[in-house]
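Example record for the data management plan.
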Amino acid sequence: MKKMIILSASPKKGEPSVSNLLSQTAKDHISGKDIEVDIIDVRKSLTSKDCTPAFEAMKDADAMLIVFPLYFFCMPGMLTRYLEDYAHYIGAQGLPQKIYTIVNCGFPEPDINEEAIRVIQSFSRRIGASFRFGVGFGSGGMIMGAKDAPFMKKAMQTLNDAFDLMAKDMNDMQLPPLKNVYIKVSFPRRLYYFGGNFGWRKLAKQNGLKKGDLYRKPYQAES
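Corresponding structural encoding:
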């Protein structure tokens, strides 16, 4: 029986997140394929002030799947610190484990996640692990409320195929290097941005702001 640890690395507190949903979906899909899967909530692990139990579970796993949202075109600072602490914890021993990642962003273009995936690849080399492939998911926020909608069918099927490939790769030591998977939702771009902008305006109103306040530049020097 192989063992996979999923790192769910959403910085959100007390509210649903795309990363948590993707982590649970991965666990449900991969478990039972001769693979035991556990999820570690990175935020909860950090705030517990003792990461040792989580780090031990990570060290003993055959594979890790690192799931996180794109923050300023890279990883959330919380995850960066966590992986740095983990690398320091295991030292230079080198780990014969496989690493995968899923990065979701609010942009429609999934390849915007490419640099963040490359960072996980670099981290894998640092700890002596084998980075296998990453999944870049565009328009990630749509998974929360529309994953069962007809226009999401192809994207969700591609995601499930990626989970199947992870399971196969964990159980097969002979597979060649694998390519990253980029998932784009089949949804009109203009309508997507319209919905996103509407959400920002609604949030601004709830916080006592007007539409124009969203375009203010408070740090711009006055002429």
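Summary line stored alongside the record: The first helix runs from residue 18 to 30.
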